Amino acid sequence: MTEPRVFFNFEVTADSHTLAACRERSGYRALEKALLSMAPADVEKEVTASGLRGRGGAGFPTGAKWFFVDKKSRVVYLCCNADEGEPGTFKDRWIFENSSHQLIEGVLLAAYALNVRHAFIYIRGEFDLPYRRLREALTEAYAAGLAGERILGTEFCCDIIVHRGGGAYVCGEESSLLTSLEGFKGYPRNKPPFPAVKGLYQAPTVINNVETLATIPWIISHGGGAYAGIGNQNNCGTRLFGISGHVNRPGLYERPTGYPLKRIIFEDAGGIRGGKALKAVIPGGSSTPVLKGFEIEQVSLDAESVIQAGSMLGSGGIIVIAEGTCMVRLLQVLTRFYAHESCGQCTPCREGSAWMDRVLGRIVAGQGVKGDLESLESVTRGIMGNTVCALGDAASMPVASFLDKFRDEFAYYIEHGRSMNDGRLEV
Amino acid sequence: MIELKIDNKMVAANEGETVLQAALRHGIEIPHFCYHPCLSIAGNCRICLVKVGGRPKLMPSCNLAVAPNMEIETDTEEVAEARRAVMRFITLNHPGECGICDKAGECRLQDYHVRYGEPEPISIEPKSRKPKFYDLSPRILLDNERCILCGCCVRFTQEVSGSHQLGIVERGSHARVERLETGAFDDPYSDNVIGLCPVGALLSRDFLYRSRVWYLEPVRSVCTGCSRCCSVNVWRRNRHWHLRALGEELNRTAYRVTPFENPEINGPWICNKGYDLHRFMARQRVLQPMIAGRGASVEEALAEARRLLSESINPAALVSAHASNEELAAFQAALGPRLAVYSREDYRPAPGEAVEDGLLIRGVKNPNSYGVQALFGHRPYGVINGHDLLLVWGDNAEDTSFDGARVIRLASFGTQQEFTADVLIPVSTTFERSGSFSNFEGKVNRFDKVFDKPELVQHAGELFGRLA
Question: What's this model's pTM, rounded to 2 decimal places?
């Protein structure tokens, strides 16, 4: 492979996830380099120079996030957000299963840069093998003196605490992750104050995605400039893209940012199953607005390009939808998910997500009435921007975009009581 | 002081205040459900969204700290649209049963629905079903369908009373308020959640269906349950709605007692004993003056009492801790020099009653013990002092301890022992007079007359001059 690879740079074997194997591929060299020859501020400088942006979905520059934290505070916490629950996203899972040490190293580097004594990894409760792999890796790291007290014989100490989630999607939202970590019900918090000021246990807290943290060792080893040189200007580096849906080779692909969306679907993922036409793409996990097949012609996999096309790159979970799929029933799958996962704290999301689900459920059952689409639209407008956290937006964006782009299908379903695409999907 | 602009009006706000607080203080109305000045900010009802100059999204004003030169708009079309949307969501599953709901008339949801909501719902879905109308405790009914999940009651048990007995279980639209693992909701302050609830989800079992609230009016009074002397509102039938034919006794009934917000003494809370004050006052009364167990007129009873006083060699008075400061002053002026004065505690903690805690409840279970002691010192009565006449003022005195001395009683509530006194003169209760108590910190709290006294009952403060 000619392009640099941050993750897919080794062959996955039965023991490629162990410390020994990781060391062979120069694991923990970046940590050695940082602890022995770099000041914490230098680590931060490299990360800022790399132009790395958060991989969790919002795409906030990591260097800026670190900059906002008062590193002189007596306590600073680092949380690794590993509550990967966005439908269509499965990148963190791969990292845990195959390269946990890379994440641990990234966590330690970030902890070193931010003056963190205790780092937390909030891992999704449903993850079983990933959790066991992470535990194994942590045990190995502690035994090898790579975590805990006096790491690598230096003054730097950092304990890594693993917390398993209880199965709530909303706990992937950073503030509810903190609430859950503190032992409360996972309710998002109102902002301000932001976690960088008052986060976990009211202390300044940095929350980074798994992929973000696991990228940091590479940045320290190769330099921020090298990372910034990959991909295009505002979206540096490589990203893990999970392709699912009606493609021939669904799976996880590491590609530099700016890679054409069309190419990843039709070349890397082997095109649409059964040779069907492409109907739609949800480009960044289920909560991002849907794009019609023809809209992706010019889209490349970087935040700005996808935003220009009217959607978001989110967590990089690309869901490919083939011609013949019923968009009404597909949307109901999504609304059911969000209605089920709304935490119930704030009014618009609690009531609105359930309302949308009921209306769609009725339409799918053939009992839609005239006016349903208008009321769905007014519900999405009522939710969007009015909720405590982004889950309300996440629940209403798919509805708004599906209605916008496939209105005729919805109208047909309401009028005839059945789908336009009944019986024609053979995948 | 921070100056900011709300609806093009310059407003001075204190440092650390929120926009909602500043607006409410200046009489600018911003609707709110989950905000309460004494509870933490939840920011979950989203009805208080306002437009902040320079920010794209609407912000909840309850969680928005004031900043210099901030420009807030509360009446733009954008804000109105957001309020309509939130009202639409809140009323989506809120049952339209104001007609049978006790909260109707003092319900914020009802008020806001008229002001900010839409007349017709756009939803055609059936309302969702939740546990309805069941006993949260022997005192409180909970209706989860009416609940709008503002969380005020939960935060109250967590932050004010500290019992942590309520919580919100389940998530999404299945979320509902429930008792937590402890099973009971026997918090001594539990009834406060009824008033705290912005809708009719938490209802008093005592007040349930007794009256529509618009027939009632509050009168400021003081709870006599302990020496905290919390300010309360006693709700009586509005004069305009007095019953003229059937059920006239209802015109003289205290329907319920709620806290009167008094930041000096009790804040916005009272304990459950305070909520039961009207029942305390509704016990059997002494209404008939008596001489040696036989009915007499007020004049006869007074004459007999005067005779006993004049014949006595060594008279004493046991002064009630339910007496108001004004009555005590009248007593001291008229009879103080002639009598040996003892202080007495009319009521002691009942079995099982919360004796004292860090919030409101005090160990001394009478309102004016401190007023009495300030005047006469702390002097409990003992038999050995050898008095031949006792003027026993107040309730609950043990006959046996008087050891043969003659007894003149001034009592409000009747139990058997009062009727064996040599002279019995009924006196008015706290509800039937106005005055003031001094609480345990020496703070004076005044109370107004709620009802006229019954005909033969006397105000103690007016009696002493006639006894002298």
Answer: 0.93
* CB-CB neighbors (< 8 A) of B59 in chain A: none
pLDDT the model gives residue A92: 96
User: Taking Cα atoms as reference points, which of A84, A2, A39, A8 lies closest to residue A315?
Assistant: A84
- Taking contacts as CB-CB distances below 8 angstroms, the residues of chain A near B90 are 347, 351
Chunk chain A into consecutive blocks of 10 residues (it has 427) and report each block's average pLDDT, rounded to whole numbers: 82 94 94 96 96 92 95 95 95 96 97 96 96 97 95 95 95 96 95 94 96 96 94 89 96 94 96 94 95 94 94 95 93 96 96 96 95 96 95 96 96 93 60
Nearest-neighbour CA in chain A from B171: distance (Å): 5
Residues of B in contact with A347 (CB under 8 A): 44-47, 86, 89-90, 148-149
Determine if residue A270 is left, alpha or beta; phi over 0 gives left, psi from -120 to 50 gives alpha, anything else beta.
Answer: left
Residues of chain A contacting residue B145, judged by C-beta atoms under 8 Å apart: none
- Domains identified in chain A and CATH numbers: 19-229 (3.40.50.11540), 233-322 (3.10.20.600), 327-416 (1.20.1440.230)
Fold classification of B290-467 (topology level): Rossmann fold (3.40.50)
Q: Tens digit of pLDDT for each residue in B109-120?
A: 999 999 999 989
pLDDT at position B384: 64
Which class is domain B216-281? mainly beta
What residues contact residue A54 under an 8 Å CB cut-off, 6+ apart? A60, A61, A62, A65, A208, A209, A212
Per-residue pLDDT, A422: 72
Q: Tell me if A238 sits within 8 A of A76, measured CB to CB.
A: no
Low-confidence ranges of chain B (pLDDT < 50): none
Q: Give the Cβ contact number of residue A153 at 10 Å.
A: 9
Kind plus residue range of the DSSP H or E element containing B202: strand B202-204
User: Looking at the partner chain, which of B44, B63, B174 has a beta carbon nearest the beta carbon of A347?
Assistant: B44
Q: Does the ipTM surpass 0.90? A: yes
B92 with A362: Cβ contact below 8 A: no
Nearest one of B87, B92, B38, B82 to B61, comparing CA atoms: B82
Q: CA of B61: which chain A residue's CA is closest? A: A190
Smallest CA-to-CA distance from B60 within B71, B69, B50 is with B50
**pLDDT reported for residue A2:** 63
Pairing status of strand B406-411 against strand B423-426: parallel
B89 in reach of chain A (CB within 8 A): yes
Restricting to A residues 189-218, those with a Cβ less than 8 Å away from any Cβ of B are 190, 192
What are the residue ranges spanned by the domains of chain B? 2-92, 95-209, 216-281, 290-467
CB contact under 8 A, A382 and B128: no
To the nearest whole Å, the CA of B77 is away from the closest chain A CA by 13
